[in-house]
Each structure stands twice: as structure tokens, then as C-alpha cells.
Amino acid sequence: MGRDATPWALTCRAHEAAPRSENGQTATARFARNAAVTLDDDTCYRALTARDGRFDGVFFVAVSTTGIYCRPVCRARTPGRERCAFYRSAATAERDGYRACFRCRPELAPGAGLVDALPRLVARAVARIDAGFLNEGSVDDLAALLGVTGRHLRRAMETELGVSPIELAQTRRLALAKQLLQDTSLPLSEIAFASGFASVRRFNALFQTRFGRPPSALRRERAVGSQERNEGTLVLRLDYRPPLDWSTLLTFLAGRAIPGAERVTDGVYARTVRLGDLTGWITVQHDEKRAALRIEAAPSLADALMPLSARLRALFDLDAHPTAIAAHLGRDPLLAGPVARHPGLRVPGAFDGFEMTIRAVLGQQVSVRAATTLAGRLAARFGDPLTVPIDGLGLLFPTPARLAAAAEDDVASLGLPATRARAILAIARAIHGGTVSLDRHGDPEAALPALCALPGIGDWTAHYVAMRALGWPDAFPSGDLAVRKAMGGITARAATTRAEPWRPWRAYAVMHLWTSLSDGAGG
């Protein structure tokens, strides 16, 4: 679509990755028929006029007279309706020649959640592109990983998103570069490589073409406050759709933080990080001035900022649509009170799926505190020291390969029953050997039986892992004692039946049920 073309109408369709019920019908399809909203151009313009944060990241608005595209929450003067064109993604707006607004910064807009309108293949491809796969791999490599041909992947992405994989990757790289230029003091050459460009020359040329000025000009123009100019660290900003129940999210993570590797103190989450061969640390705190989280990262992680950002968005569930979820769950009398008391409640994800799964197994049949102690022992015994620790955090959680090579007696010596030790080793060996995948954007229907086939993994653990490591919004550990207690002490079978109307967001219902109990039980 060119600038003079008729604006494209956005339509929210059922996500093909949704769980299927016994009659073969997807739960999300049922939800779509009951509650989906078609975002035509007039609806988008009304959302733009209201600067409605619920639509942030759902669409972008391009203005024909300025050649600029913005988020719907941009504080600039609202353009006339006849000058607006609406796009589902920043990449398609840029493909048509529009440049990103330097005021609302479209590169910071929240992404789409699992129940949004993308088929499974495209969603999985986008997730890997967001995490930087194409910075080193090719489109054919990505397609092979997803089990299709390169031609099929290109066609699918063109059909769904209107851009090719390369165009989307280029948009993501330039967006990260623009963010680093405005929010950090990194040299331009380091920004180019940290954003996934193979050369500074290529970075400069593409930036000039896309934004109408060279990177050096933007660096000179920007005004960075002292808070964001921390020498010796990297600063990132991750936006979300408000509201966000930050305190409840931190409370959940604090109780499960692995000693030596994670910590929550005074409203700040900190942890050690291993991404491939790169190691370092990060701290995360809420930005009191905007709907965003502020990340500080060790300089050693500069070349891993794309996967780092993707993992943090998953950990804090930043791409959720909280108002839509609350509207759906709040209709149930059992959840109405908890939903009202905790606006913006998220499902805590996992920075590392393997780490979270091992932590879940350690939590079987013991208290949260006891499981945390065991996790700390495991990290101290089999993990690696961080080269440059931060405030007492100096342990890197063991890799699947390291645990897979461990002896059962060594694992059991941490204070574990032999059956629990065998379960941990089975998980490590399955992940290391590739027989089980904890791909956050994979198929939960395939992952759940594969997990349950491992010794020591039952339905509860599998669904808990699906909630957090796999990011499945409809996971439901029906056998969880706390869930059943909050539902009136009913059986697991009755809980499953009772939770049917909560689809496709049963995982969020579980979080509301857990937080409704004063003891904070649940995983």
C-alpha cells in the first residue's frame, strides 16, 4: 500500500496455535466468535483520537503529509482522518516509505500476544527474528528449523504480515539501533554490531535511508537525562500495555529466586545471564514516568541485546493484553473480585525455560522456600561462576549439558530423593539431546505429552511449565491444591470443567486464584 492507497483494515483472527478441545475446535476460535473486534480504519482512528493504550502495538498510524508513522498513544497533535493510514506492523509502514516518529518511538511498542492473529508458523518465525536469528542465520536456516521450505516461509510471512523475513529483521535491527542511540552512550560502531549489522557502513546507509538522517545526527540531537546515562552499563526500555501489577509479579518471582543467581530487592529484579557464550547480569525496575520497565545490563551483553530483550519480555509477560483478559475473566463471579483487586496481573514467564523447569521439579511436594534452597544448592554445585559478579550475584545456572553429565548420586546429595534426582537428570538429557523442546513459541500440545513421558513429570508439572516456560496462556494445572482450594475445595476433574469458560486465558485465572490465597501457594 502506498501513501495514496486506501488504508488497510486490520482484522483480529483466531490464532492457529490455540489448544483444541475434544471436538477439535480451538478454544481461541470460540473466544474469537464471542469477543473478537474487527479493527477497521474508523475503529483505529477512534482509538488514536482517544490515545487508547489498549491498542498500543496492535496497530500503527501513518500520516501522509508528514511521511511519519506513530503509535496510537503518541502525544503529538492528532492528524485529520483523511491523512491517516493504518498498519498492523511497523515493518509494513516502513516498507511503504514512512519513517518512525522520534516522539512516541514505535520501536518501543509492545508486541502481540499468543492469542493474536498470527498462524503458528509465522508467530514462531517472528519470535526467532525478534530474538536475532537472522543476524547470523539465513532465511533458509530459519525455515529448516521450523520444518518448512524457505519459499513457504517467505510466502506465509508476506501473506500474513505484508513483509518478507529479511524486511522484518531489518526493521527490528534498525529499531534496536534507534533505541540504543537515544537511550545509551554506546559508540556508534558498537551500536551497529549490537543491533545485528555486519558492518558499520551498511548500518549507516540503512539508517540514513530509513530515518532521513545519519545515526550521528540522531546522537547529537537527543537529550539524555542523567538517569539514562549510566557509564559502564547498557540501558534498555521495554514498554507494555498498562496496567501492570508489578508488585505482585515481583512478589511471585522473589519467593522463587535462585540464591546466587537471582534476587528481588526494593522493587528491583536482578539476575545473572548466560546467552550462548556471553555472560553478564541485568537489573530490572519499573519506570515511574511511563508504562515501561527500565533495564540495566552488563556491557558484556552488548552483542546479545535482541535475545535479551525477547527473554525479558517473556519473563514479565509484557506483550499481554491485560484489559481484554480482565474483561473476559471478570465476568465470572468467582474471579470478579480477584480481577478487580489485581488489575494488570501477569503470568510470570521464564528467562530460561530449562532453569524454570528444573526449579519446578525441585518444588514438587515441598514448600516454595524449600525448593528455593534446593535450587541454590544445585546452582552452587553444578553452575559456573560469573566473571564479574554484581552485589552477591555470581552464579550462572547450570546448562543442560552440564547437568546431563552429572551422576545421580551427586544430584541426590543436595538433599533430594533418588526419584527427584533421576527426574532432573532425565529433563537435562532430554533437553540436551533434543527429544524435548521448551520452545516458547512451539506447540504446547506436542510439548505437554513429551514432558509427561519423562520420569517424575506429571500433569501438574507439565502445565506449570507450559504456563511459564512455554508461555501458553491457556495452561491449567487442574490438580494444583491451591487452585482447587480457591475454587471451593473441588476435585481436579470438577476444576477442569469449572474453568472451561475461562479459555483461552486459564493461566491468568490460575494466577488470580493463587494470589487470592493469603499463603501465596502455587508452584
User: In which range does the helix fraction lie?
Assistant: 40-55%
Number of helices: 24
Beta-strand percent range: 5-15%
The average pLDDT score comes to 87
Number of strands: 13
Supply the CATH architecture of the domain at 1-105: 3-Layer(aba) Sandwich
Q: What would the principal axes of the Cα set say about the shape? A: globular
Q: Give the C-level CATH assignment of the domain at 1-105.
A: Alpha Beta
Going by CATH, the homologous superfamily of the domain at 1-105 would be: DNA Methylphosphotriester Repair Domain
CATH topology heading of the domain at 1-105? DNA Methylphosphotriester Repair Domain
Q: How many strands, what sense, and barrel or not for the largest sheet?
A: 5 strands, antiparallel
Structural class category: alpha+beta
Computed over alpha carbons, the radius of gyration is: 23 Å
Strand order of the largest sheet: 7-11-10-9-8
Q: Can you tell me the residue ranges where pLDDT is under 50 for at least 5 consecutive residues?
A: 1-37, 223-229, 519-523
Report the span from N to C terminus. 49 Å
